[in-house]
């Protein structure tokens, strides 16, 4: 028997035990309670780059505020980004809205059923389109994510680099050749859960609990530790920053980031390049237009983006009075003084500044 025929036979053999296992062990997730196209879509976009447990609260809050696609299409961007605050990768939220607006304009506010039309929406890739089509519309379309690629790499003992785009296309075709037509969404979710719960990405997989262990080549050949193969990521660039929490009366200074680039259009605490000494930090604050009354160091922090790492030093500054100067914060249209309550309610602060967010609300000492 050729290797391709062997693989197809092996893939067919996974369907029944996987579905049985899923029926007994599937995760209880809020978006599975009512898997409408909108709910599946929002959950899958949120789950990109974000842990399931972290997503649950955001998902509930998002749908409470924006229960329909039409609500998402019309919400002001700052409110949308505030709802997304802490999830990161904010372009996901912007693309959600762009797609919602297209759905309202072209599909009367209802997610299209056709896979290719779903795929054509902004921010929706092959995986998300497959998840929506299979889970919400019961179409026999694969949804190939990192979990699925890892399961298949081990099950077939395939040493191909799982970041290879051609492999993703191959896996999609292989799954669609065996996906059960009556339960395509369940099959896709079973693969996702197996990868998340059993065929783990870090640490030792739980092979003893796996419904596929009798056929899994990597398990039988004792090669689970070496699979899947994935090319190492490029080294992240490191930037040092000094972050300021500047309090004046009952307000704190925040600044809107540029409309393009990293964290575009979000609000941040003012920051200077490099790690400033206390003396240089005071000079920076004075140049912003404040007269420092008190300054104290805050804990160091770091935040990791996909391509970049911020290493941050922080200062809490209480200002005695505003001192108008050329280049002061008053002349910068992107700067504003807001109360902590207003910042909490209305201004999306990226999670990159999470270590300093508690100091926004810190009361002044008498």
Characteristics of this structure?
single chain, Endonuclease III, domain 1, Nucleoside Triphosphate Pyrophosphohydrolase, 2 domains, 7-stranded mixed beta sheet, 45% helix
Q: Kindly state the mean pLDDT as a whole number?
A: 93
Q: Specify the CATH architecture of the largest domain.
A: Orthogonal Bundle
Shape: elongated
End-to-end span in angstroms? 83 Å
Radius of gyration, in angstroms, nearest whole number? 25 Å
Strand count: 7
Unreliable segments (pLDDT under 50, ≥5 consecutive)? none
Instruction: Give a short account of the largest sheet.
Output: 7 strands, mixed
What is the C-level CATH assignment of the largest domain? Answer: Mainly Alpha
The SSE string, one letter per element, is HHHHHHHHHHHHHEEEEHEEEHH
User: What is the H level of CATH, i.e. the homologous superfamily of the largest domain?
Assistant: Hypothetical protein, domain 2
How many structurally independent domains?
A: 2
The secondary-structure class comes to alpha+beta
CATH fold label of the largest domain? Endonuclease III, domain 1
Name the helicity range: 40-55%
Strand content: 15-25%
How many helices? The count is 16
């Amino acid at each position: 028997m050729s290797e391709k025929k062997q693989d197809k036979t092996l893939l067919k053999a996974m369907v029944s035990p996987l579905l049985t296992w899923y029926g007994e062990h599937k995760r209880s997730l809020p978006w599975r309670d009512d898997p409408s196209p909108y709910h599946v879509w929002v959950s899958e976009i949120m789950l990109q780059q974000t842990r399931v447990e972290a997503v649950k609260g955001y998902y509930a809050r998002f749908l409470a505020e924006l229960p329909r696609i039409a609500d998402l299409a019309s919400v002001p961007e700052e409110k949308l980004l505030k709802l997304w605050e802490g999830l990161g990768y904010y372009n996901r939220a912007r693309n959600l809205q762009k797609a919602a607006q297209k759905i309202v304009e072209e599909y009367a506010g209802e997610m299209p059923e056709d896979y290719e039309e779903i795929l054509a929406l902004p921010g929706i890739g092959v995986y998300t389109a497959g998840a929506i089509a299979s889970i919400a519309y019961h179409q026999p379309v694969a949804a190939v994510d990192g979990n699925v690629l890892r399961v298949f790499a081990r099950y077939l003992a395939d040493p191909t680099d799982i970041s290879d785009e051609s492999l993703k296309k191959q896996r999609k075709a292989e799954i669609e050749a065996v996906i059960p037509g009556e339960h395509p969404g369940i099959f896709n979710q079973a693969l996702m859960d197996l990868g998340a719960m059993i065929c783990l990405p870090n640490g030792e997989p739980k092979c003893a609990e796996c419904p596929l262990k009798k056929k899994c080549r990597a398990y039988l050949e004792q090669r689970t530790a070496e699979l899947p193969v994935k090319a190492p990521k490029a080294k992240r660039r490191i930037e040092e920053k000094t972050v300021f929490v500047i309090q004046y009366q009952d307000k704190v200074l925040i600044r809107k980031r540029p409309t393009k680039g990293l964290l575009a259009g979000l609000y941040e605490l003012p920051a200077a390049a490099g790690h400033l000494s206390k003396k240089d930090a005071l000079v920076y604050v004075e140049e912003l237009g404040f007269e420092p009354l008190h300054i104290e160091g805050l804990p160091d922090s770091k935040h990791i983006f996909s391509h970049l790492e911020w290493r941050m030093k922080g200062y809490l500054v209480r200002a005695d009075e505003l001192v108008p100067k050329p280049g002061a914060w008053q002349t910068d249209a992107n700067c504003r003084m807001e109360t902590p309550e207003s910042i909490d309610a209305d201004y999306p602060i990226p999670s990159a500044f999470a270590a300093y967010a508690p100091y926004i609300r810190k009361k002044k000492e008498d």
